[in-house]
Amino acid sequence: MEIKWDGEAFKSMKNLKVLIFKDVKCSTSPKYLPNSLKVLKWQRYPSSFLPLDFHPKKLVVLDIGHSYLRSLEIIKTSNNLGILNLRSCQHITEIPDLSNLINLKELDLQHCKNLIAIHNSIGYLAKLEILDVTSCVRLKTFPCEIKLPSLKELGLNHCSRLKDFPEILEEVKIKELFLIETGIEKLPWSIYYLTQLRDLWIRQHKVIEIPNSIFLLPELERIIVDNHGKVISAQDQQSIWSMQCPNRVNFCLPRCNISDELLRSCLSRFTNMERLNLTGNNFTVLPSWIKECHFLRDIKLNECKFLRKVEGIPPYVRLVGAINCMSLSLESKNLLLSEDLLGAPSRHSSTNFFLREIYFCVPMASIPNWFGHRRKGGSVSFWFRNHFPPLCLCVLFKATDGSLESNHSYSSMSASVYINGEEVYYRNLWDRSTPNVEHVIVYNIKEDHIPDYKMERACRENKWNHVNIEVDAFSRVDKALIIEESGIYVIKQLSQKEDFRFTNPYERSVSPCGDQNCEIIEISYGAGGGDGDDVNPKCTNNDGN
């Protein structure tokens, strides 16, 4: 809507408190604005300046985003101003001294693409809670120090020419700090003043130096660095290296050129970490200190093509991804897929929710020997009664030759559990690009994975129940994944042998002795070194044949 006026309509409105223009285009700029205004919201304000005789002493909210404003001289003495929104004001090149705005709480400068400099006074506004300069792509000069005890949000994303992060002079209330596509080269030692910081997220293409004082952040929960570049740890304060970070931190550091040295030194101080994502890095050894991370649940080592050796693994880790770790030694593969690690009864009997599901994926050409019951293809079955037994399951799969001709082949794989023909459980096993070589996935299924109502509906009480586990692969490229073999391992210590079978208990088997009246009392249990395809029954004849 367009309004035609002479710009003097407000001259007689001496007591006007609130003025809001929205989706309105004016034929000319205002020549007068009432000094009584407390709220002025005027999107696309048409002039480069506010009226010269406007003295906004009472102004609390000034929202003139997307406007032609060039100068803020008029508001420099508006000490009641609480909110200043200049978002997308493309003609503003600098923010002047605003030290008199002692009540300012919000300063929104997002998308001011020609903004070059912000005066140091902004760093000393005691009541400022939000300072957002996101996507100020030409911004070079930012307050070199900040003393902002009320600050809760600091937006610096996409300030690609901003190289320096300000020194922090006292505690700040920021809980999240995002540095996405900035030009910042290092964080200051004084970052420890961010005492409430929980999440630190960095994504950029430049090297960034993170100080060791990060160990001192008492609330830190997650560090995510995804910069396709390099992350280094400052070593100027050597005394800090003797300290441990007490926090349960989640580290996400994909494609950061993490070195063996950094793994051994810096990350080893975070022994209480819960998740560690090192996807696509260049280190060669996962060091033994990782065994001391007793809270560590998830480790992602995918695409670490130089990783040769895993020196240890925490006892209760639930997820390990080593997809396309082509240099991994056989000894390390066997460690990751060992019966002691994955088949331990204590792991499967735990009531801890976070340990309920296990998922390990490792490049391997065969199923581990401790999976005693195996079948070619993606289908395995068994019989149980009374209680569903806790199981480890294993899938060996590979890509077809044709699928590898496409660099962007994408595949998915899932497992479904059927009891007496009724689906009771579904789990996604793979949802990513097709691997280059054969891989093994080990996962688990327990009774508490299956909803009670499905279990009750599918099972026959006090009778044998047939379970079939089907693993299916799907792809945009025809037959991109082949399921070569599947295996089952029963956690013997947590199940009753007489309540579990790999053969149909309703079909009478012929005894090895040839006596049809002889009762078979023992069958293969699905554990040990055999391939599990042969059942070796024993009979009750006195000769023991």
Structural description of this entry:
With 545 residues, this protein is mostly beta strands. Among the domains are: 1-174, Leucine-rich repeat, LRR (right-handed beta-alpha superhelix) (Alpha-Beta Horseshoe), CATH 3.80.10.10; 373-501, Jelly Rolls (Sandwich). The chain has five helices and 34 strands. It has helices spanning 260-265, 330-336, 339-342, 345-349, 452-458; strands spanning 2-3, 18-21, 25-26, 39-42, 61-63, 83-85, 94-95, 106-108, 117-118, 130-132, 145-146, 153-155, 167-168, 176-180, 199-203, 208-210, 222-225, 231-233, 250-252, 275-277, 285-286, 298-300, 309-310, 319-321, 359-363, 373-376, 379-384, 391-399, 410-419, 422-433, 439-445, 465-475, 481-490, 500-501. The strands form eight sheets. A twelve-stranded mixed beta sheet has the order 14-15-17-19-20-22-24-25-31-28-33-26, with no helix packed on it. A seven-stranded parallel beta sheet has the order 2-4-5-6-8-10-12, with no helix packed on it.
Major beta sheet, specifics?
Answer: 12 strands, mixed
- Widest sheet: strand ordering: 14-15-17-19-20-22-24-25-31-28-33-26
Report, as a whole number of angstroms, the end-to-end distance. Answer: 98 Å
Principal-axes shape call: elongated
Rg computed from alpha carbons, rounded to a whole number of angstroms: 33 Å
Any idea what the CATH architecture of the domain at 1-174 is?
Answer: Alpha-Beta Horseshoe
